[in-house]
Each structure stands twice: as C-alpha cells, then as structure tokens.
Amino acid sequence: MEKKKQKSNEIWKLYKVEKGVLTRTNSTCPKCGAGTFLANHGDRLTCGHCGYSEFKKKSK
C-alpha cells in the first residue's frame, strides 16, 4: 500500500518567518476572511471554499 502524503507539512508553504515575524505568502479571500487563502493559478486567484475569483492583469 502506498504511503499517503501528509498535508500537515504542506500548510507551512503558505507562511514565511522573517526576523521572528510570521507573514502569509498568499493573499486571503475577502469573502471568507483571514483563515482562507486564495490559490494562485496562472491567470487568476481563486478561493476553494466559496469560489471567489480575481483575474490577474496581463502585462505587455
């Protein structure tokens, strides 16, 4: 049987510690609040909880 990947280790990719201060690397959902992050896709940011989407501006 395959070992399952532990998701508890994946959550730490969303935070960064600099000089003793904890900061979030991804932006949060404006509808759901501070506990829900927006997923960073190629052309948009989306919330997996409520479905909120923000489209990124294309740079020329």
From TrEMBL:
The record's annotation in SUPFAM superfamilies points to:
Zn-binding ribosomal proteins
Transmembrane segment boundaries: none
| One Pfam family matching this protein | Ribosomal_S27
Subunit structure, briefly? Answer: Part of the 30S ribosomal subunit.
Q: Could you say which residues bind Zn(2+) here?
A: 29, 32, 47, 50
Residue ranges annotated for the Small ribosomal subunit protein eS31 domain, each copy included: 11-53
Single GO term (MF): structural constituent of ribosome
Q: What is this protein called?
A: Small ribosomal subunit protein eS31
Q: Which protein family is it in?
A: Belongs to the eukaryotic ribosomal protein eS31 family.
Q: Which gene encodes it?
A: rps27ae
Give Gene Ontology CC terms: ribonucleoprotein complex; ribosome
Keywords of this entry: Metal-binding, Ribonucleoprotein, Ribosomal protein, Zinc, Zinc-finger
**GO biological process: what's one of them?**
translation
What cofactor requirement does the entry state? Zn(2+)
Cofactor: bound how, per the entry note?
Answer: Binds 1 zinc ion per subunit.
